[in-house]
Amino acid sequence: MKTSRACCPSNVAPANGRRALLKTVAGIAGVSAASGFGLLTSGEVAYAAALTKEQRDSMTPDQVIAAMKKGNERFRAGKMEAHDYLAQKRASASGQYPAAAILSCIDSRAPAEIILDAGIGETFNARIAGNIANDDLLGSLEFACAVAGAKLILVMGHTACGAIKGAIDGAELGHLTGLLNKIKPAVAATTYAGEKSSKNAEYVDEVAKTNVMRTVSEIRQQSRVLAGLEKDGKIKIVGSMYHLVGGQVEFF
Ligand SMILES: [Zn+2]
Hints:
Layout: H1 2-7, H2 20-29, E1 46-47, H3 53-57, H4 61-77, E2 82-83, H5 85-92, E3 100-104, H6 112-115, E4 123-127, H7 135-147, E5 152-158, H8 162-169, H9 176-181, H10 184-189, H11 201-222, H12 224-231, E6 236-242, E7 249-251
Parallel strand pairs: 1-2, 3-4, 3-5, 5-6
Antiparallel strand pairs: 6-7
Helix pairs in contact: 2-4
The structure holds zinc ion (ZN).
């Protein structure tokens, strides 16, 4: 924690500076107090330290998921950790060891780090309208997991997604047309008994869920690298939906 010691403001307890993810993991994993985990309670300290390689590598994919759920609970309760972003920036400048890679939509209302209460250096974040996977995104995810060691790929759709509505409507505009074409298979694959219209919020969200699960499947089918890591238990690839109303990230 010498980095945070060197730069932290007076309200930070340098020797105890830990990250939100780690605190949660300590509780889940039952790590002993002697190891330094689980000593803090929420709100006692600004989050100044970046994940170290050892800390990240000690996490399982399920622990990363659990930590994300806890972070989202804090967000929903308005009790986010007091992130010291400048200290996190300094602590991570010489190396990054993120625990997860998130593939989510560009929607301004669904910023992954904020709604999961994560800090600088904790998650890779790939954003594209409609959270689809293409070759370049697959390459990015392969880098995140196979090279940089992330333990989880979280595909995150969201309610009331404009890209999903555009795909339902068959909207056409410049390069957007081609992007929406990649979402249209999810429209076709969604079974729904009611009105199949972009004006029907329930239907839009059903298509969005289908789209998330299709993206998860495509990652597995099109990336032998990532499918292999998952088969070996080194990573997990999971889908989720962020609910704009209420703020919950629903994990599938
Ligand atoms: Zn969207």
